């Protein structure tokens, strides 16, 4: 795993399981959306809402008690939006083994105080890099 910081970390609990005993994919997607939203709001300096979620894959399995780390990167910047890739990595509860359990792409639109799309401030973006 590359030396990078996760946007969020969470532990999978029994309520996060699907009927087959694995972690529910919807829970993984929601954690990824939270991490991506945090990045969009921080870089956009304000309210950012998800408008699409695409390209999801679930290459690995996660068990109850495993720790999930969500890593996000801004893949593209539009006039009023960010496209953010998210990668979910599970670490086994009692060890160091890691598995990529999900990946996907989110698009966020920045909103003003009237909940209307607002422009991405290029000067603020370069200050965050």
UniProtKB/TrEMBL annotation:
- What positions does the domain HotDog ACOT-type occupy? 2-114
Q: Name one Pfam family in it.
A: 4HBT
Database matches in PROSITE patterns: HOTDOG_ACOT (PS51770)
Top-rank taxon of the source lineage equals Bacteria
Alphabetical UniProt keywords: Hydrolase
Family listed: Belongs to the acyl coenzyme A hydrolase family.
What is the designated name of this protein?
Answer: Acyl-CoA thioesterase
- Source organism per UniProt: Qipengyuania gelatinilytica
Q: Could you read off the lineage of the organism from its UniProt record?
A: Bacteria, Pseudomonadati, Pseudomonadota, Alphaproteobacteria, Sphingomonadales
């Amino acid at each position: 795993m590359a030396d990078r910081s996760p946007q969020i970390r969470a532990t999978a609990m029994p309520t996060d399981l699907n009927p087959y005993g694995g972690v529910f994919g919807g829970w993984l997607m929601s954690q990824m959306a939270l991490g991506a939203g945090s990045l969009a709001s921080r870089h956009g300096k304000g309210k950012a809402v998800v408008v699409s979620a695409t390209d999801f894959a679930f290459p690995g399995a996660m068990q109850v008690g495993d720790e999930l780390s969500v890593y996000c990167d801004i893949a593209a910047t539009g006039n009023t939006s960010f496209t953010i890739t998210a990668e979910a990595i599970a670490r086994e509860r009692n060890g160091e083994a890691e598995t990529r359990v999900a990946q996907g792409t989110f698009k966020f639109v920045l909103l003003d105080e009237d909940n209307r799309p607002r422009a991405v401030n290029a000067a603020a973006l370069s200050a965050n890099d």
